[in-house]
Design a protein that fits this description.
Blueprint lengths: L1 H18 L6 E8 L11 E3 H13 L2 E15 L2 E12 L5 E13 L2 E8 L2 H7 L5
Parallel strand pairs: 1-6
Antiparallel strand pairs: 1-2, 3-4, 4-5, 5-6
């Protein structure tokens, strides 16, 4: 089941990175938890598919271009997958780019991604999952 969960998360994240659309493998009641990400000063949690899309629109609003490069998918056991990624954005009306490296802790239940926790670093996401890099 663990490899299946990794593949579910890989498909969801890859599809979103390429299309900015959510896969059917995302639960309708997804919880997107930002409490552990100090860079985010807005609403600490978004619920549902629409809630996530509201977060994403707010997060990328300042950028003309936004990209994400996924570095790794790590099976953390207990239906949890740690994903490490780099995000870059070109600020609107500017040639300046900003970049950051994040960690995400995803939870899969019954074949659907049900929860995502965002961390300021991959190391923090691994620690939250009980792993060390």
């Amino acid at each position: 089941m663990s490899q299946e969960n990794v593949e579910i998360v890989r498909r969801v994240v890859t599809e979103f990175t390429e299309t900015h659309q959510l896969s059917e493998l995302v639960a309708p009641d997804l919880v997107w938890d930002l409490r552990s990400w100090p860079a985010w000063s807005g609403q600490p949690e978004f619920r549902g598919r629409d809630g996530f899309m509201d977060f994403f629109a707010e997060w990328t609003d300042a950028y003309e271009d936004w990209t994400q490069e996924v570095e790794s998918f790590i099976d953390a056991g207990d239906a949890q997958i740690v994903v490490t990624a780099r995000q870059r954005g070109r600020l609107s009306g500017s040639d300046s780019w900003v970049a950051l490296r994040l960690g995400f802790l995803y939870t899969v239940e019954n074949g659907l991604m049900v929860r995502a926790e965002v961390y300021a670093s991959p190391e923090q996401a691994l620690e939250a999952a009980g792993l060390r890099e």
